[in-house]
Amino acid sequence: MTSSFNVHNAAGYEQLMGRWSQRLATPFIDFAGLADGEKILDVGCGTGSLTFALAKAADLSEIAAIDYSPVFVEEAIRRNTDPRINIRQADACALPFADGAFDRALALLVLHFVPEAGKAVAEMRRVVRPGGVVAAAVWDHLGGMPGMRMMVDTVAALSEGGRQLRARYCFQPMMRPGEMKRTFVEEGLADVTETQLMIRMDYRNFDDYWAPIAAGEGPLGKYVATLDAAERARVDAAIRDAYEAGQPDGPRSFANAAWACRGIAP
Hints:
- By secondary structure, the chain is of the alpha/beta class.
- It has one domain (about 10-265): 3-Layer(aba) Sandwich (Rossmann fold).
- Helices cover about 45% and strands about 25% of the residues.
- The chain has a 7-stranded mixed beta sheet.
- Strand 2 (about 60-65), helix 3 and strand 3 form a beta-alpha-beta unit.
- The model has no long low-confidence stretch (mean pLDDT about 95).
């Protein structure tokens, strides 16, 4: 099962999203829960934002981490120095683990990029022991990502292709209120709780914000890469104008909200 996330290199991803997923990892772990001695699965580990935060958060016995992207897996393995952590390439919809192998299965900023997200939730439930926890978080692209909405709303005002991008971006899987909770319940999880987590994304200047998108990283970068030279120049200028908002270039800070859901395996 493919992922809809577009990645070229690990450094570009870190600037685009990795630094923010590291910031989100701490409140997500607090929400999902954790206890010493547990075996944890990180589904869609990326470059290791949640994986390495888990290793610091408790005295865990084992952390397994998987991702569909070989670029991410290679980088996470390169960064790893903890013998408790094992990282491999795998599909979230066909996890290569035995039933009940883990105490918790967690997915941070992953399910909205899985076309059959319900199947991934079912797999997370399968590999968690009875009484164990399945938890996930996804960005609220429609109402909780003002920095990214600034970009998609700007390009939507410029072209039909931009309007199509906005429609795709704002309604990826698991992003509507209650959608992830309903999926958890449908997949047989009990005591399902949904909440919101919030962090701030702080940019030094316009280039800090725009460079990874301009380089083609992520779903927004994938759209930018399709533009011809004239349209690209028009978009670059319009996004810069939106970022600066009539003030000199410099630091900007955006509050960003994620939906988070937790359930208990029966």
